[in-house]
């Protein structure tokens, strides 16, 4: 079956996601994150694209970018090939690292630009990797916080909010808006979900979950839900009621 053509942005602006094949970890060490950023910087100069936001998670990457002289497909191919060659050499492996093609969605208005901009910067919060927006190291938040970019094009977003202070205020307001990544997640099997539960929590069974104190339990539930486990599946595998899980997730978005 032929691939569906990518939807084009009227302004050349896209939200792009690169995901590890089979959801595998693609950043094992700090050096891996730094190398990806070096490659991103290099091809930003070579391909002359604009970068408005980025976030490097352990098994996927978010980019908010605008193509100018080079089309998006060429840009992403160069970035992927360069990083995979480096990664395979470092870890003495062969084969694919990224899952299928990169995913992209067009940004066609300022409202959705704002939504994606915040979604990318709050990804670590919703994944349980930080407890306050902006404390996660591997994103472009710091460029906006100090209003000085090393290579991120911060002016467009700041101008949208009229000042850097209002831009940061917007990023700090916790939102549960969902973008492409969330909508495109496939349903996990119970086996896959259990592997995630065992990896991200100290629990080996539903009984372990039910003996946790409420604060830690809710932190785990938030983290697991944003890892792609549905509320219904979480309830079934942990023994926690759907109402309690819903309440735990809402705590993060208030």
UniProtKB/TrEMBL annotation:
Stored Gene3D superfamilies: Transposase IS200-like
PANTHER family to which the protein is assigned, alphabetical: TRANSPOSASE IS200-LIKE DOMAIN-CONTAINING PROTEIN, TRANSPOSASE, Y1_TNP DOMAIN-CONTAINING
Protein's name in the database: Transposase
Listed InterPro entries: Transposase_17, Transposase_17_sf
Pfam families: Y1_Tnp (PF01797)
Domain Transposase IS200-like: 10-123
């Amino acid at each position: 079956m032929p691939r569906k053509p990518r939807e084009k942005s009227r302004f050349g602006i896209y939200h792009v996601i690169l995901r590890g094949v089979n959801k595998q970890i693609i950043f094992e060490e700090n050096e891996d994150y730094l190398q990806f950023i070096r490659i991103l910087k290099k091809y930003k100069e070579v391909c002359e694209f604009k970068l408005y936001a980025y976030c490097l998670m352990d098994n996927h990457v978010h980019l908010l970018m605008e193509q100018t002289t080079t089309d998006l497909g060429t840009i992403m191919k160069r970035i992927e090939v360069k990083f995979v060659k480096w990664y395979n050499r470092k870890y003495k492996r062969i084969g694919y690292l990224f899952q299928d093609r990169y995913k992209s969605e067009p940004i066609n208005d300022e409202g959705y630009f704002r939504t994606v901009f915040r979604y990318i910067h709050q990804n670590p919060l919703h994944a349980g990797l930080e407890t306050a927006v902006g404390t996660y190291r591997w994103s472009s938040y710091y460029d906006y916080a100090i209003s000085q970019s090393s290579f991120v094009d911060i002016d467009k977003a700041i101008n949208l909010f009229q000042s850097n202070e209002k831009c940061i205020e917007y990023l700090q307001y916790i939102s549960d808006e969902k973008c492409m990544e969330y909508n495109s997640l496939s349903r996990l099997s119970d086996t896959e979900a259990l592997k995630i539960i065992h990896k991200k929590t100290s629990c080996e069974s539903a009984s372990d979950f039910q003996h946790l104190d409420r604060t830690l339990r809710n932190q785990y539930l938030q983290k697991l839900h944003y890892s792609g486990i549905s509320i219904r599946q979480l309830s079934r595998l942990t023994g926690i009621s759907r109402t309690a899980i819903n309440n735990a997730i809402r705590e993060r978005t208030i």
